[in-house]
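Z., the sequence and structure:
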Amino acid sequence: MNNLSKNCTRCKKEYSLTLENFYYAGKAKDGYSSWCIPCKKEYRNSRKEEKSEKCENCANYNKNMKNCEVLKEFVKDNCYAFMTEKQKEEVERAIVEYSLAHREAV
């Protein structure tokens, strides 16, 4: 590896050290990101898909939590898709209890 090239720490490929291959990273020693641009884009796109999937899974629970402080406190920032089975059962039970208490259809 010469001074004008760098290995991506994710894909391990060697690229020339330019802004065409690596994003600017002011805090890095050499001023470039440790991942190449294709790896960064791939990672960002996978996170977008994961995030949108989480939002779809939580949509039904979010609409039921709008006015329910019990559910808001229980779920907090957790996504339903990543809860344990026990947590999911507790959320389901809380939704039913809330609906019965407020005479709303779920």
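The chain has three helices and four strands. The first helix runs from residue 37 to 65.

Let me know what you think.
H.
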